[in-house]
Specification:
Layout lengths: L5 E8 L5 H14 L5 E8 L5 E4 L1 H5 L26 E5 L9 H8 L9 H8 L1 H10 L7 E4 L4 H11 L4 E5 L9 E3 L5 H9 L5 E5 L3 E10 L3 E3 L3 E4 L7 H7 L3 E3 L6 H17 L4 E10 L5 E7 L9 H7 L5 H19 L8
């Protein structure tokens, strides 16, 4: 491998509501890939779940018009041109990409890939499960409830008994603030629930905190590297999808406005949260620091965080002197390292 370029199979697009986010992230990944070391294979998954290899010139023109593709299902593979790469880089945000399903497929095929393993990806994607694991690790999480059926009367009564407004209503397994609403009074609850249940069969209702919104980048396998924290000041009521990817009016501070002691505690909490979900590869840890008490709360972890030129995950590494191109190379190295560590696991039969 040292005498030739390694091929990197970049998986992007996908069937989730974050399809367009994936396209933007992949463009930044492609742009910052060290072309002297790596040769990309662009594997596009359209909104219907059809896979096709995309020519680089077509990708750069952002021509994602429908064309014939193929399923990856084994019984439909006879017409699919053979695709093989030295390592795969899933750049798929949200369900069917960030939740462990693609990762499990690659594990079954025995292929190395970048990012968290399938089990850890699933844990991080499920906000309910991850919050329970954070609590088990001794980390603070905000007060929350979760519901598996859109029974408005029952939910309204439970929220009235156990939480106070304002609250956030969000799908349990979705990213980029898709399906998330801030609810300031009871009459706003039903439309927020209806929206969240469009994206998931499990929905959280959690207490809104008066806080600083902090993000920390973490990468590595057994040995991890933790960035300095960044801070965002949402332009709207909260950092919603429109502000993230359309308006772009949120203010960012890199590094965050934290005193040295709080910053160190935030970094320690981010590393502890990463370990609590058995993560490897990379993640962005989203943290709240309550303004009056300075209590640190873990909100959630994204295992395939936003990867655009303006995304917090790559920008935070610049504080550590790591360029975007160097970051991509490190993540690929971590993928190979993890694969080498785990590829020979087997069950011995007596």
């Amino acid at each position: 491998m040292k005498n030739r370029k390694m091929t990197i199979g970049i998986l992007f697009g996908g069937q989730s509501a974050e399809h367009d986010v994936s396209l933007n992230s992949t463009h930044a990944l492609y742009t910052n890939l060290d072309k002297d070391k790596f040769s990309p294979i662009l594997i596009y998954i359209d909104r219907k779940g059809q896979w096709r290899v995309m020519a680089e010139d077509t990708f750069l023109k952002k021509d994602f018009s429908p064309t014939p593709g193929h399923s990856f299902l084994p019984w439909q593979m006879e017409t699919l041109k053979k695709i093989d790469a030295d390592i795969y880089f899933p750049m798929l945000h949200g369900p069917n990409g960030e939740d462990g399903r693609i990762q499990a497929l690659l594990e079954l095929a025995g292929k190395p890939y970048v990012g968290a393993n399938s089990f850890a990806s699933g844990l991080a994607m499920d906000k309910v499960v991850s919050k329970l694991l954070f609590k088990n690790a001794g980390l603070n999480v905000g007060d929350f409830l979760f519901f598996e059926a859109n029974d408005y009367l029952k939910i309204r009564e439970t929220v009235a008994q156990k939480l106070t407004y304002p609250v956030f209503v969000k799908p349990s397994a979705m990213g980029s603030s898709v399906g998330v609403s801030k609810v300031s009074r009871e009459e706003q609850l039903k439309p927020a629930l209806d929206l969240a249940f469009r994206y998931d069969c499990k929905v959280l209702v959690e207490k809104a905190l008066e806080m600083q919104e902090i993000e920390v980048s973490v990468m590595g396998n057994n040995e991890i590297k933790i960035s300095r924290p960044g801070e965002l000041i949402p332009h709207n009521d909260f950092y919603d999808y429109k502000d993230k990817y359309i308006d772009g009016k949120t203010t960012f501070y890199l590094p965050a406005h934290l005193d040295a002691e709080t910053e160190e505690k935030v970094r320690q909490a981010a590393g502890k949260a990463y370990k609590a979900l058995f993560l490897n590869g990379m993640s962005r840890v989203d943290i709240f620091v309550e303004k009056h008490t300075h209590i640190i709360y873990i909100n959630e972890i994204n295992t395939i965080p936003g990867f655009t030129e303006i995304s917090m995950f790559p920008k935070l590494w610049t504080l550590e002197g790591i360029s975007f191109t160097e970051l991509v190379t490190r993540l690929i190295d971590y993928g190979f390292e993890y694969h080498e560590k785990t590829k020979n696991f087997s069950v011995e039969w007596n």
